[in-house]
Specification:
26% of the residues lie in helices and 12% in strands. By secondary structure, the protein is α+β, with helices and mostly antiparallel strands. The strands form 3 sheets. The chain has a 5-stranded antiparallel sheet with strand order 6-7-3-8-9. The chain has a two-stranded antiparallel sheet with strand order 1-2. The chain has a two-stranded antiparallel ribbon with strand order 4-5.
Length: 257
């Protein structure tokens, strides 16, 4: 048993310091100090074996080459063609609409290849809603042209005439203007379905009048005058008129008695 030289406490065998005062323990003379325990060292890892390299095949072992295929997205091509067609159709539509030479009534081809028919020859059914953008004189001419087939169907018959006037005529101290004649005929059309004709196209004493007639033909002047009486249209507002192109017929108008 050894004892600490500093504090006299017993020292455990092999201890290098006193557990009571931490003084180093001096080994006894002739007694070698116990060698320190060797620190174990981990053996070095063995080098990894090199990875096996597959042998390179010779030309005779390679598979035959095939021609490369080009891949095309069919859906994208179709969509692209449709887009180009729509754009081209839209440009054609705008070009047609922007062309001032075509006019408002010209046929217009749209992208769906549907053609809107030319309305310039359509029958004008009501002067109150027809050609509102035309000047009054042009409205009179357009209405006459539209009514001509119906008037021609009455050629050779007597009809009630409900108005006859000319531009510049004096009526109750006022001068008839085209706009007033348009308004007058529109009223008669609304009341009696009147047709408009130009007296110069038929046998009239005056060839420069706009005439409104009822589209009801009769075999005699008396029957046409009866219509005037039944509708309470007295003389001189309503008279019987023979629609004809034959100047040899003679009298073509008869007033109420």
């Amino acid at each position: 048993m050894k004892f600490c030289a500093a504090c006299g406490a017993a020292v455990l065998p092999g201890a290098r310091f006193c557990v009571h005062c931490a003084a180093p323990v001096v080994p006894a003379a002739g007694v070698p100090a116990a060698p320190a325990a060797p620190v174990p060292v981990a053996p070095a890892a063995a080098p990894a074996a090199p990875a096996a390299v597959p042998p390179v095949p010779v030309a005779s072992e390679l598979p035959p080459l095939r021609p490369a295929r080009s891949t095309v997205n069919v859906g994208a091509v179709v969509v692209g063609l449709l887009a180009v067609a729509l754009i081209a159709g839209g440009v054609s539509f705008l070009a047609l609409r922007d062309d001032p030479a075509d006019g408002a009534a010209a046929a217009v081809t749209v992208a769906s290849n549907t053609t809107i028919a030319d309305t310039s020859t359509s029958t004008i059914a009501d002067t109150s809603t027809t050609a509102v953008d035309l000047a009054p004189a042009a409205q009179l001419a357009a209405t006459r042209d539209a009514d001509r087939p119906a008037v021609e169907a009455l050629v050779g018959q007597w009809v009630p005439q409900v108005s006859a006037t000319r531009v510049g005529a004096q009526d109750d101290g006022t001068t008839r203007a085209p706009a007033e004649i348009v308004a007058l005929h529109a009223t008669l059309r609304a009341q009696f379905g009147a047709l408009l004709l130009w007296s110069g196209d038929y046998v009239f004493a005056q060839g420069d009048e706009w005439v409104s007639i009822v589209p009801q033909g009769y075999g005699s002047a008396g029957e046409a005058l009866t219509w005037c009486l039944e509708n309470k249209l007295e003389r001189p507002r309503c008279l019987a008129r023979l629609v004809t192109h034959d100047a040899a017929v003679g009298e073509t108008a008869q007033a109420q008695p």
